[in-house]
Structure formats: structure tokens, C-alpha cells
Amino acid sequence: MSTIYEPQKEKVVSEPEEYLELGQSKGYFALDGKKIKYNASGKKYNFSDPEEKVRAEYYFDLIEKYNYPAKRIELEVEMPDRTPERYADIVIYKDDEQKIPYIVVECKKDGITDAEFEQATKQAIANARVLKAPFAICVAGNTRRAMETEKWNDKTPEKAIITDIPISYGKIEEFRYKKGDPNWDLKVLDKQELIRALKKSHDTLWAGGKRNPTVAFDELAKIIFVKIRDEKKGRKDGEYYDFQIKTHEPAESVFKRIDGIYQEAKEKDPEVFKESLKVDPEELYTVVEHLQSLSLNKTDLDTKGVAFEQFMEDFFKGKSGQYFTPREIVNFAIKMMDIKNDDLVLDPACGSGGFLLHALDKVRNDAEEYFGSDEAEKYRYWHNFAANNLFGIEINDSIARVAKMNMIIHDDGHTNVIGFDALEDIDKMNRKNPGFDNNRFDIIVTNPPFGANVKASEHPYLEKFFFGKNGKKGRANQKTEILFIERCVNFLKPGVGQMAIVLPDGILTNSSLQYVRDYLMEKTQILAVVSLPQFAFTHFGAGVKSSLVFVRKKEENERLGKYPIFMAIAEHIGYDATGRKDQKNDLDKICEEFKKFKSKNNL
Fold first, then answer.
1. Dihedral of the alpha carbons of 577, 580, 584, 588, in degrees to the nearest 10
2. 80 CB-near residues (< 8 Å, 6+ apart)
3. Residue 63 neighbours by CB distance under 10 Å
4. 220-247: per-residue pLDDT in tens?
5. What stretches of 397-523 adopt beta strand conformation (E)?
6. Could you tell me if 71 and 204 lie in one domain?
């Protein structure tokens, strides 16, 4: 069956930023097409400029949160005696006549590099010195650095760095961000803000190539664990968060406090936290600057899910593609499996956790449908599933930690994700986590590694596999994807366990692999085969033509006569060979047809 159709384009609804609505309603500024007019000064600027968006939001904050009068805030203030001409983006004055500069603000677009931010910081200080303003601040989206002008020294900048500019000409505070404060609690993010924050943090740790990108990602995962743990710590309203930089605090002090939280986490959850933080205090200081004002915990799950998925897709593309399956393929496989909240779900090659997270999202969406406004019942329904029913195995410890981080970001589900070789002896796996056993799982969804050879000389467990033998003789080696088929079938519950597995088409067509197909037909009922286009995995570094195969494990003595198998060819899968979005997607239609097929054949 070949199904081709063109879905209707989704309507994109752009919600205006809250500060823009409030700012206009209160008369701080007005939007006129592509221009923004600041009413106190009468000046107009191009609002399509990313830096202008940053300035507009910070201008709003200066009036609303910091309580500075609009008539004392000026934009584009020319520096006297400067050639060529130079301007400060914002200057706050102490007087209505705008004669006594108080704070100088340098605005940059969100997402600039650390080097660009350092340069902008020095620009803010230079302007503040020229104007004799006691304070300066550099604002690049959510990354902000406030300073006392007189104390600034390029060699020891932390001696001048303060937690934030004063509120309404008041005193310098030790901390800024505190729980429950309407102005100074942590900020809920939109998708793009979160992606930028993650990218900036990763770039800091990557350090222009000093670290391997996956090592940098591993360190970022540790820091995000600490961030979330700090946000979830029991605090009364008004108490300060620990994950932030104090006034005049050296990088070593920030490291000590953050590492203290990390060490506690290591003791509580040793399976997640095995190694120490391997970052310099100065690097950690910069990452904290990027993340300190943001709430990962309060940002809604859909936003976090899409943001982390997009960030990791960009990160893994061309770097560690074998650990990432495109979301369109993942989402399709999960829809085809119709997972329920009492199913035990496993991905034995879970990579960054995509299949597990989509399974969790499916159950979470079911909870929304079943329980409506009953928040407690909805939470119980999906959270119990996350904590007790999701299992993952990933051979690469660093990527396993990424999967755990991904689960924690989604409000848990990391407990049963282990760093382990899924082809290793089951008893060893069971000792690591007793939840992993043969004949136990209702659902397996997986994209196992292709093409690698498991050698008997390196992996003695090969001889224990049916596919590790050739008749009575042991094989010298076997392909990983073939061994994964056997391991996955063994994991499934007899009679009811079902699996969706990505397999290279060679397993389905090569005459030399007939023994693999015979095994599948003997042990399982083949429910469906969906052929994917050649390019399905090319932009993730894998070009092998593949299909998704759906099976049900038979009872031990179950015999089936001839039975129908659902066959489909997906020519469009929501993206093209370069990874760009494709409005055509056959997968949704295929899923609909499969549901009709199951109903017709009582499957």
C-alpha cells in the first residue's frame, strides 16, 4: 500500500509578548508597523532588529520591576568627546533634568557568544566611566551582568560584578532571584528562549573546541540536574535560590556552592551522578549567568519537550547521529503502538530518550483527555507511568545521562534508564536493575545500532544467542541489529508483547538473511512493515535504507496459519533529505489505515 497525501498547513498563531501589551497599555511605548516609539523621549527605532527587542523588554523592566521613572530614562545617549561617535543604548539618570547619569545599559541580542558578551561588558563599563555613572549592566537576552564602575578591573571582574542593578536607587543586594516574588522569581521560558539558553551554555562548555561536543553536553547535563534540583528544593516564599551569582562573588565560591548541590545529588541518585563536575570555576560561573534567571521546572512540559528535542536534534546532527531518531519517526512509531499507562515500555537502545519521552507524552495526553480538570488524578496517572513503567538501556554512559536528563526535564521517568550494553547477559543487567528481565515488557520501541559487528573474541556473550550460532557451531561475529532482534523478542511478554523496531531493509530482503526472517516468523506475528525513504536518517549520518517493523510475540506453542500483514510505503515523512521540514507527511495517513486494518482483522 502506498499512501500519499498533502495535509493542510497548520495555522501559526503568534502571541504578542506580554511586556509589549502591558507597555503599550501603560503608555511606555507604541508599536507602529516595524517601528517602536518610546513615548517619554519620542524616539523611534526599528523593532525588527533583535537588539531593539532586547532593549524594549529591558526598558519595560526598568520602569515596572526596578521602579525607575520613564522621564529619567534616555536612549541612544551620545558619549562626549568620542571619535568616532559612540552611543549608550540606555542611560538611567538620578534627576529629572537628565544631568546626573546613574546606570549605563549596553543591550545585545540574545544568543551572542561569550567573547561578544565580554566585549559588550567592557563597552558598558567604558561608557559608564565616560559618563561617570556608578553602575553599568550588559543585557543580552536572559544573560545579564551588572557592575560597579569604579571597582571594575579586567583581571578580576568579579570584584565589580553585583547580583543586579539597584532597585529604585536603593542598595546593592547580595542575591536577586527568590521564590514567590512577583518580580524576582525565576522566569518561565518560551521555546526559543530555552533553546538559546541551552545553546549558549553548551557553547561555553564546548569552549570553541577545547572539549569534545558530547563531553560538553555531558557536563551541561550535570549542571542542568543541579539547576532543577535547586528549583525543586523546599523553600518558603521570599527565600533565595542557590543557583545564582552573589554580589562580588568569586567564581571559586560559585563553584563550591553548585558543586555542593551536585554532591548531594550524587549520594541520592548514584546511577545518574557518577562522576564529579569536570568544568573550571570560570566556565561554571558563565553557565550560571546564562541560566540563573530561568525556571526549568515551571516552564510547561510541551515547551520543554519541543525545545530540548530541537536543541538535541541540532546538536546530535552530524555529531552523534546514532543516538538520535528524528521526532517524526518516533512519533509515528508511538502512535502505531497505542501505549496505555499500565504498559511496561522499553527501548533497549534508547540514545537520548526520544521513544521513551514520546511514550510519556502519549500517556500524559491521555490523562488530559480522561481526567479533565482533576489535576491530582492527571498527575498520578502519568507520573506513576513515568516513574515505574518506562525503561531504557544505552551503552554510552554519557548519552545515557543525556536521556536521564531529558526524562528529569519532563518531570521524571529517569529511574529505570541505565547505562549498559543491552546485548550483555540478562542476569548482569538484572543485577544492575531488577526491572530488566525476559518475557516482561508489553511494548518495545527502538532504533537499534546498525552495521557494527559483535565479535566472539571480544564479547563472550555472543555464544549464548541463537544468532550467535550457525547450526551447532559458534559464529565468530554477528551484526548488532540481528542480535537486537533476538534480545528484544526475548524481552517481550509471550502472547501480548508488541514491538516497533527500525531495521535495515537487507534483513527483509537479502537471501543470505533468510534465517533471520525465519526466526521472526517463528517467534512473532508480523503485524506491519512500513518502508521508510532512503533519506530517512541521512541527515543524522546514517544512509541505510530502512523500514519500521511491527510484531507481536507469540505464545510458546502458538501456531498461526496464513494471516494478513499490513504493508505501507512512506514517500514523505515530514522532512526531506536535508532535514528541512516537508509539509507532506504520509505517516499520519498510514497510522489511520493501520488502525482500520487492526479493527478489521481483530488485532
1. 90
2. 130
3. 18
4. 888 988 998 899 888 999 999 999 999 9
5. 417-419, 443-446, 453-455, 469-470, 473-474, 477-479, 498-504
6. no
Length of the chain: 603
Cα 440 off chain centre by:
30
Q: Name the residue range of residue 130's domain.
A: 26-162
**3-state SS, residue 105:** strand
Q: Which phi and psi angles does 11 have, rounded to 5°?
A: -75, 130
In the chain, the amino acid numbered 74 is E
Same domain membership, residue 432 and residue 561: yes
Q: 403 in a domain, yes or no?
A: yes
Give the integer Cα–Cα distance in Å for 289 and 230: 15
pTM of this prediction? 0.78
SS3 107: strand
In a domain, 356, yes or no: yes
As given in the structure block, the three cell numbers for residue 438 are 525476559
Give domain status of residue 177, yes or no: no
Q: How many beta carbons lie within 10 A of that of residue 40, not counting itself?
A: 17
Q: Could you give phi then psi for residue 573, rounded to 5 degrees? A: -130, 20
Provide the 8-state DSSP code for 21. Answer: H
> Do residues 109 and 54 touch, judged by C-beta distance below 8 A?
yes
Sign of the four-CA dihedral 208, 209, 213, 217: negative
Report if residue 20 sits inside a domain.
no
Judge if 146 and 193 occupy the same domain.
Answer: no
Same domain? 214 vs 357:
no
Q: Give the CATH number of the domain where residue 102 resides.
A: 3.90.1570
DSSP output for 533-572: PTTTTGGGT----EEEEEEEEPPTT----S---EEEE-S-
Tell me: the pLDDT tens digits for 495-532? 999 999 999 999 999 999 999 999 999 999 999 999 99
Query: Under a CB-based contact definition with an 8 Å cutoff, are residues 258 and 226 in contact?
Result: yes
- Nearest CA among 235, 103, 256 for reference residue 177: 235
